[in-house]
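Methods — Computational structure assignment.
A single polypeptide chain was analysed. Its primary sequence is given first, followed by the predicted tertiary structure written as structure tokens.
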Amino acid sequence: MSWDSYLDNLVGQSKDAGGAAHVDKACIIGLDGGAKWTTDAHANALKLTTAEGANIARVFKSKDFAPFMASGVFVESEKYQFLREEDNKLVLAKKKGVGALTLQASKTAIVICHVPEGSQQGVANKAVAVIAEYLESMNM
């Protein structure tokens, strides 16, 4: 099964009234080990390395966000500054001049999106929540 259609849905959910998308790249990884559910072939793929996915999954699974606080969140070889964590399932991060990240866990997956510099992370947070909550409703 391809999960890539979820990326189209996420980008679509991030569009404002004017039609501008506030998410340019996204991916879904497994909570258990960080394996990619979406492919790098998708036009809006956020291309995590195997190590980046594994590290993100390890932190979310343990619910100990200290590694993100100490070392940042690494995605596509960029280090994003950890901003905050909410409810042991949502993480926000930022890198000046590059953009921001929203990461939200469901029962078995982590939905991750990149917000380009100048876009609104709040809109992206809602888009990620729609996908993560849908997966949660499907017991995933």
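Note: The first helix runs from residue 4 to 13.
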